[in-house]
Structure formats: structure tokens, C-alpha cells
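Bug #2210: C-alpha cell dump truncated for Cysteine desulfurase?
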Amino acid sequence: MNSTSDDYDIETIRRDFPILSRQVHGHPLVYLDSSNTSQKPRVVIDAISDHYAQHNANVARAMHELGAEATAAYEGARAKVAHFVAAAEPAEIVFTKNSSEALNLAAHTLGASLRPGDEVVVSVLEHHSNLVPWQLACQRTGATLRWFDITPQGRLDLEAAEREGLINEHTKVVSLAWVSNVLGTVNPLRRIAEQAHAYGAVVVADGSQGVPHLPTDVGTLGVDMLAFTGHKMCGPTGIGVLWGRRALLDELPPFLGGGEMIGEVRMEGSTWAEIPHKFEAGTPPIAQAVGLGVAVDYLETIGMGAIARHDHQITAHMLEALGELDFVHVMGPDKPVDRGSAVSFTVDGVHPHDLMQLLDSRGVAVRGGHHCAEPLHRRLSISSSARASGYLYSTDSEVDALCEALTWAHAFFTGRVAARA
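Reproduced locally. Full output below:
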């Protein structure tokens, strides 16, 4: 198995993840579906278990030792996440249940000020979580939804957008993926944000595929809001994040009503708590936040720069290896330049769903479908694709195992081999 550099000990990292030692259908697990969800290191699993076993209580309202411990752990996780993305203060971190809820929060609150004649700009490569909420916001308000198209290389067509005046004086919100979950394209957020800000627009980024893989500084990105999710960055499911600039969050209305998001409640009306609690109604995902905080500790111990370099090396090897298979057609940029680790492709004569199942019979886990990006697949004139995606624990040998399994699957579906796995 490979090591990205002398100080990146892939074998030690892999031992941190219990699931990577298991077998599937009699084969060693080759997990190449991290863009869907990442695996969890033992320290995260243990932290969640310890929280429930020793510190379980509600936060902010239980006036006893367990409540104090749970609150300290929950708010401590917020501080860790704030540091991880270089936020100005922990109050800029709003916990949600996932990226989808974070983006819905953005769309509902920013959408409250939209009017007919206003425009919201997205792109054709968005995950449904960064498309459908804005569609709904525009339907509620009469605003118009517009979008970036892509070039044949799978990158945003910035020249066409500028030529057509896509971002203009009517633009109120621009919401874009930092990294495409299908094509792997890394979008030039800062350049687009500067253009949008010149017209007074708010810029939202879906960082679901960026934050887990790249060093993140919200100031450098140049956006006003950033959504991401714990389960793609070695944390548990059920916890997401919306970072927002304090001045913006202060002026936005609440998203959900209930306990803890209030200042004072009377029958005639209510006032709201300060941020971030204004956006965190009810009992929050406490243990999940604790797990995310430990996941952040784990990633920072390895170093996000080292993780990014390892991801780049694995993606480069995957692009090169898949490029040598003449029956495989990679979607998006075919070079590892401004490219994330999600590599989607089609295989001649094999439907992605069938391919996914056949690869699974060899222990190789990938995803098949439209990856919650149906408009993008329609734009590319295909209904679905397969997707392989590595992460900090992935190896060159796993990529090679994928290619061997693809060769076998293609031969099977074209009648060149027997069905024996």
C-alpha cells in the first residue's frame, strides 16, 4: 500500500478505522464511497459511546453536573469547528442535522427578503440540496432562479456567464458548490464572490465535498455562508454546520421555532436568542456534535494539508488508472488540477446500478445513480453514472482493486467470463 510522503503513515491511519479490516462477500473491503459518507475512526466511535455512558444530559437547561458537562462538550465542539474553518468566533457556527438542513436554513432565511424581479444564481452541477431549497424559495417569493452552465471539461462556464450577465443588479443570492460531488470540479468561489459582492449579493457555498478534504479558511473563500456535514469528515451522521458572518446571521430571521431559540415568549409574540442559538430550536444533536468535535481533532492531528496532498495523489492515480481502461469514460476534468476526489464514470454496456452490485460482490464499494445531481446528468445526456471516491485512508492498491473489478465486471456483462466472483 502506498504512502503519500514519508510522514504520512497510511498503515497507521487505516488501523484507526475498525471497519477497514472487515471482509465483504469473502473479499477484503475496498471502500471507495467516501463522497457519500466517510468511515469513522475509533476515537470518534469511543467519544460518542463515552458521552452517552458518562455525560448524557440536555444542554443549556439542566442545572446539574451532567447538564454542565454536556453543555461544555457541546459548546466545546462548536469552538473546535469554528477554529477548523477559521471562523471569527464560535457564535458564527450553527449546528444543524446535515448540509441539507444548513442549506435550507440559508434559503429560508435569505429567501424571506426576496421579491419578484430578484434573482438567485446557482449552477447546473449542484447537489439537489443546493438546488431544491432555492427553487422553493423562488416559488414562494416570485424571484427568478438562474444558473451557470458548464464547459465540455466539466467546469463552470464563466465566460458565457459573464457574456450573458448572469450576475447582475437583480442578483440577491449566489449559491454554489465549492467542489462538485459528481465531476470533482473545484469552483473558483472567491472570484465569483467578488463579482457577486460588487452587486450587493450574498454568497452561499455548499462545502460538503470541500471542507473534509481541503484546508478551509472562510475568509479566504470569500463567501458569506458555508454549509458542510459531519458524516463526510470522519464524524457521525446527524450533525451538520452552517457558518455565517455574524453581521449577516444577526439580521436574518429564525428558521425554526421552539425551545432555546427564544429570548422571551408572550402570548402576543416572542423575541429571539442571540446567534447561534436563534437558529437551534429544540434539543440539538448533542452527542453528534461531540463526535464531530473529536473528528475535527483527529483531522487536525493528521493535518489538512497532508490530507489534501494524499487525496490529490489518490485521485491522480485513479484518473490515470481509469484512463487506461478503454471501456471506462470519466466525467469531468481528467487531470487532478482544481479537482476533488469524486471520480464519476460510465462503463460501456453496463448500467451503473448493475455495476455497483457486481463490484460489491468483489468487496468494492462505490456508488451508482445520479448522486442527487439529476439536472447535471440530464445536461450530460446520461441518466446515471458510477462514482468512486477516496479519502485520507484510501490507497493505490484499492484503486487497482477497483480497476481489476471493473475489468472483470465489463467482461462479465459482455459475455467474456463466467458469473463466478
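Output looks complete on our side. The longest strand covers residues 171-177. Marking as cannot-reproduce; reopen if the truncation happens again.
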